[in-house]
Amino acid sequence: MIKEGDIGFVHNGAVISHLISWAMGSKWSHSFVVIGEVHGVVMVVETSDFEVTIGPLSRYTDGRPLSIYRIDGLSEEDVSTVCKRGLSLLGVKYGHAQLLSLGIRRLLRKIGINIGNFIRSGLVCCAVPLYAYEFILGIDPESIDTEDLYQKVKNSFTLVETTLKNEVINEKNIT
Question: Which residues contact 121 (CB under 8 A, 6 or more apart)?
Answer without folding.
Answer: 93, 95, 97, 98
